[in-house]
Design a protein that fits this description.
It holds the Pfam family DUF3231. The protein is mainly α. The chain has 4 helices and no strands. It is flat.
Length: about 170
C-alpha cells in the first residue's frame, strides 16, 4: 500500500479549518487596529519593539489567510481596518498598557492556536497554525520578559510550601 499525499487530491477545507482561519483573521484585524493606534504615540523604544513585532506578526498571518482564502475561492471579510480607528487621535492608552495588551493577546492566542491544532487536519493549515503558534509563543515570551525587566508584571499570589506530605485519604480541615 502506497502513501497517499494530499496534493494528489483536491482536499477542501473543513468547517473547523474555515472557522479557525476566519476567527483568527477577524481577531487579528481588530488587534492590528489597537497596535497601530499604540504605535502612533509610543515613547518607550523597548515597548515599541514589542508592539511593532506583534503588529507585523498579526499582519503577516492575515496576509497568509487572505492568500489561502483566495486560492480556495472563499470570500474575505473586510474585518476591522484603518477605517475603524482614528490613527491621528491623541493617545488613549499608556505605553505600559500597550505592553500589557501585547502580553494579554499572547495569553489568549497561544492556547487558542494549540487548541486549533487538535481540530484540523489539512497539512497546509496544520503547518500554518504550527508556525503561528511558535511565532506567537515567542512574541508572548518577549512581552513577558520586558514586563519582568520593567517590574510591571503582576505576579499571581503565592502560598507557603507544605512542610510535609499530606495523605490524600486523611480528611483535612480548613
Amino acid at each position: 500500500m502506497g502513501v497517499i499525499y494530499e496534493e494528489e487530491h483536491n482536499i477542501q477545507l473543513t468547517t473547523p479549518e474555515i472557522a479557525a482561519l476566519w476567527m483568527t483573521y477577524i481577531q487579528n484585524s481588530a488587534t492590528i487596529c489597537f497596535y497601530k493606534h499604540f504605535l502612533q504615540n509610543m515613547k518607550d523604544k523597548e515597548i515599541e519593539k514589542i508592539v511593532r513585532g506583534a503588529l507585523l506578526l498579526k499582519q503577516g498571518i492575515n496576509e497568509e489567510i487572505k492568500k489561502l482564502f483566495n486560492s480556495e475561492g472563499l470570500p474575505i471579510s473586510d474585518g476591522y481596518s484603518d477605517k475603524d480607528v482614528n490613527l491621528s487621535a491623541p493617545a488613549l492608552f499608556t505605553d505600559l498598557f500597550a505592553l500589557s495588551f501585547a502580553y494579554r493577546v499572547g495569553q489568549m492566542t497561544v492556547p487558542y492556536y494549540a487548541t486549533v491544532l487538535t481540530k484540523i487536519a489539512r497539512s497546509d493549515v496544520v503547518k500554518n497554525f504550527s508556525e503561528w503558534l511558535n511565532s506567537s509563543s515567542k512574541q508572548y515570551r518577549h512581552a513577558l520578559q520586558l514586563m519582568l525587566s520593567k517590574g510591571v508584571y503582576d505576579r499571581p499570589p503565592k502560598i507557603p510550601y507544605p512542610k510535609k506530605r499530606v495523605d490524600e485519604t486523611t480528611p483535612t480541615s480548613i
